[in-house]
């Protein structure tokens, strides 16, 4: 009897001991962490922090028995009191050494941490700290009382940035609002006339049934100003807003004529009518959006317009960090206003899978959630500071089938095609771990064949690798039939959603970038495939095997393949190392390649042109001009990355699609470009020009943890992208004389930033609910003993203080140079009272 009860007593004792241990745990809510950047040595690529542990409770915080987890883009951290190590990706852990001391109630312990990477700006700070007790390893506790500050003196650097901005801003002319073009992006032909038309609550939209959707959308938009929807008449004709058909116009072209009696929009298709109506909205004085009225006066114009490129895209990354459905719909409103027609939807990556796939529920049950885990079975590990809690709204989240169908319908109504991206074969950790969870569940149920049906990795693979983002388990195994079964299933499930939405699916994006060295080299499944297939002589050849099969999968469904540039490249190994050339095997397969790598010094500055010349359809997605996630400048106060340089609104504006190297001015560190680097590069041929299908701007979301950060990096940069994607080359781009080109450029740049500041940003204050766009920092310079200030975007207001306090909306407006006698702080405001970063100038 005693022997039989012993196991039960042991279990009971273990449970009681565990519960007792739990009650002994220090309350983590009483632990405060403060991370202070104390050294930031950019030339030597290192930084140093002080990490302060403060005990705010009544109990002692123990010297051991715990692990601290966090996220950060570092690979090495050292401190005598702590042992830090990489878990995976940007996920790290810290374990106390015997030098870490117990922290008594009310006490603080400070630790100096040395890392092997400098911080370019505040958004690169270590984040997402949470604590796990050794005897309760399955539960993580977020450190809610956490603060990051910097004591590094950046004042000299910030002033230097402000001084450069001042010089650049001096070249900008202030142009009266009435002299600005009233339609944006710039139309092909635009003439203002003497007439005007007044829209009020009794105005009727006369439209055929073919254009009824466009009429309804326009009426809904004006409802936010007039407080009333316009009547739509699909039968009669009369004076009002007339939507008319002209079969002779190109698909997206339109004509817009505003007279005293009518507003007439003419096009051959609903898309053309839609863009004509967006131009009509652009004609509306932006003040109406902030101050509704019973009538809207539209000044007379005669416009003929059509886009330069048929593909005008924006890539939204919701995988790294998630955005709610409402933010996606709001984005679509803005994209439509500025005549973008393609939303590249990056919904899957290492850090998240964001669309419900009914046939494979684990993809969202596991892959859409980030939080504390020991094995990625119920959710995947935290990334980008998402912390222990799976309910973190930036780290976790997905769109249900109904959500995605709603997004598709909304985009389609606004003439925006949605291209879904299934990141493969790399950047696929969320999918891999989700299918691992499915495998384990079914194996426990004794369903081996079913368990293996969608496996994405070779269980016996001993290959060792690290991706650029430091993952060691994020690449699908392309030798497994189950990988293709998975891809086929996801494509078919997505196609069903498009079909249910009544929206055509034309292409699926299969990623294809950044597969690391070492992948597949020790995979038995790969070895078996190589033995059977004589065309696969090395793991390099698996690339072409994979994309041939993926291409066949899509072609059998009347779809074409989109992907990053790597899908069109072939790796060549020789004594000089590895280089990449256009892969002739797929050149005529209608592959659409998003070419991003034009970074100076990589040898790929001309890659977009080489692929287009070889026969690939190319979407210009150049990092140096269109990666909106890059920081605006080198200021420590700016959010964003810098691996591809810095990107303010001038970078997309400066872009010359068919000769972009002509206007490359900076390298990837934001320094003046050595022009020798781009000498002798391949120019675009006439055939190549025909293969440049459009322009796209991605916004990667590693640092975007809120809608506010998303919108800050989105606008006003996206406005410059819209101009380049829609409008023809400006005169300065084709002017052979450098002096004349410079003169034409400065005039065009002045006109552009005046339009942005006096028309488009005021519109965006309220349009579609309003956008929290970036407001630039003032440019400053000390001249003749006085401080002068200016701003990049005319129409914004500079305010300042001389008492050391931060300027507010009530602070004095800058109108003339300020005496350089004491501390002066400048800050730029918009008409709504929202401000940008301040710049301080102190007397030495």
Task: Describe this protein's structure.
- With about 850 residues, the protein is α/β, with parallel strands linked by helices.
- It has four domains: about 10-150, Immunoglobulin-like (Sandwich); about 190-305, Chitobiase, domain 2, CATH 3.30.379; about 310-710 and about 730-740, Glycosidases (TIM Barrel, Alpha-Beta Barrel), CATH 3.20.20; about 775-840, Immunoglobulin-like.
- A hairpin with a 7-residue loop joins strand 8 (about 125-135) and strand 9 (about 140).
- Helix 11 packs parallel to helix 13.
- The radius of gyration is 29 Å and the shape is globular.
Low-confidence runs? 1-23
**In angstroms, what separates the terminal alpha carbons?**
87 Å
- Biggest pleated sheet: 10 strands, mixed
- CATH topology descriptor of the largest domain: TIM Barrel
The helix fraction, in percent, is: 25-40%
Structural class call reads alpha/beta
CATH level 4 superfamily of the largest domain: Glycosidases
Rounded radius of gyration (Å): 29 Å
Enumerate how many helices there are, as a single number.
21
CATH architecture of the largest domain: Alpha-Beta Barrel
CATH class of the largest domain: Alpha Beta
Per DSSP E runs of 2 or more residues, the count of β-strands stands at 36
- Shape, please? globular
Task: Tell me, rounded to a whole number, the average pLDDT.
Answer: 94
Q: How many discrete domains?
A: 4
Record the SSE blueprint.
Layout: H1 2-24, E1 31-41, E2 46-55, E3 66-71, E4 77-79, E5 82-88, E6 91-96, E7 108-115, E8 127-133, E9 141-142, E10 145-150, H2 155-170, E11 189-200, E12 204-207, H3 212-226, E13 231-233, E14 241-245, E15 254-258, E16 263-267, H4 270-283, H5 287-290, E17 295-305, E18 311-317, H6 325-337, E19 342-346, E20 348-349, E21 352-353, H7 362-365, H8 401-413, E22 417-424, H9 429-444, H10 448-451, H11 481-501, E23 507-511, H12 524-532, H13 541-555, E24 560-564, E25 569-574, E26 577-582, E27 592-595, H14 607-614, E28 617-620, H15 623-626, H16 650-654, H17 686-691, E29 692-699, H18 707-714, H19 717-726, H20 731-734, H21 738-764, E30 779-783, E31 786-790, E32 797-801, E33 812-813, E34 818-819, E35 824-829, E36 839-841
Parallel strand pairs: 1-10, 12-13, 12-14, 14-16, 18-19, 18-29, 19-22, 22-23, 23-24, 24-27, 27-28, 28-29
Antiparallel strand pairs: 1-2, 2-7, 3-6, 3-8, 4-5, 4-7, 5-6, 8-9, 11-17, 15-16, 15-17, 20-21, 25-26, 30-31, 31-34, 32-33, 32-35, 35-36
Helix pairs in contact: 3-4, 6-8, 8-11, 11-13
